[in-house]
Amino acid sequence: MIETVYKQENALPAVLRAFAISLAFALFGLIAGVFVPPALILPLVMVEIGMLLFAFFLRRRKSISYTFLFTFTFISGITTYPVISYYLVSMGANLVLAAVGTTFIVFTGLAIYATTTKRDFSFLGGFLMAALLALISIGLFNFFFPLSSGGMLAYSFIGVLVFSGFVLYDFNRMKQMGVSPEEVPTMALNLYLDILNLFLSILRIFGILSSND
After folding, report:
1. Which stretches are transmembrane (predicted)?
2. What was the pLDDT predicted at 213?
C-alpha cells in the first residue's frame, strides 16, 4: 500500500512533463499547419474528434498511450492553426499574445491553488460534465444558426468558467487521489484539453471585444 501511494505521488511530475511535451507537439503541429492545405483541415478535425471519442470510451478499460497523446496533440496543433491565423489577421499579434499570456496566468494560478488548498473539488465533476455537454450543444447550434456577438461573448465567458473549473478539478483530483504511472498520458491529455479550450475561449473574448471597439 505504501509503495503504491509512493508511486502515485512520484507520477505527478511525470504528468507535468508529459503535458509540457504535449504542448511542444501541439506547437510543432501549429507550425506544420502553415503547410497543410485547407482542404485537409476538416478531415483532420474529424480524426481529432474520433480520437477524443476513442480516448473517452477507452478510459473505462485502460489508459491511452504516449504515442496516442503526442499524435493527438500534434493533429490538434494543425487544426488550431486556421483559428490562430484568423485572429492574427483580424486582431493582430499583440492581442493574440495577450490571450496566450492571460491563459498562462489563469491556468498556472488555478493549478497552484488546486494543488495547495485543503479543499476537495471532486464535487465539481458532475456539474462540469453537464456544463461541457451544454457548451458542445450550443457550439453545434452556433454552427448552423450563428449566435450574435453578445451571445458569443456570453458563450465564451461561460467557456472560461467551465474550463477553469476543469483545471481546478483535474489538478485537485491528482492531489487527492494520486496518479498511477499508467494514468499519466490520460491526465496529461486532460490538462492539454483544459488549457487549449481555456485559451480558445479567452481568444474569442478578446476578438469580440476588439471588434466592438
Report:
1. 12-34, 40-58, 65-89, 95-114, 121-145, 151-171, 191-209
2. 62
Q: What predicted TM-score, i.e. pTM, was given to this entire model?
A: 0.91
pLDDT tens digits along 31-68: 999 999 999 999 999 999 999 888 887 766 667 899 99
CA angle, 15 as apex, 104 and 6 as ends, to 5°?
A: 135
Q: Residue 189's Cα: distance from chain center in Å?
A: 8
State which residues of the chain have pLDDT below 50: 1-8
Nearest to 45 by CA among 84, 66, 85, 72: 72
pLDDT of residue 2: 40
Q: Measured between alpha carbons, how far is 168 from 143 in angstroms, rounded to an integer?
A: 29
Listed residue (11, 18, 9) closest to 191, CA to CA: 18
Question: What's the start-to-end Cα distance of the chain, in Å?
Answer: 59
Neighbours of 172 (CB within 10 A): 21
DSSP 121-146: -TTHHHHHHHHHHHHHHHHHHHHHSP
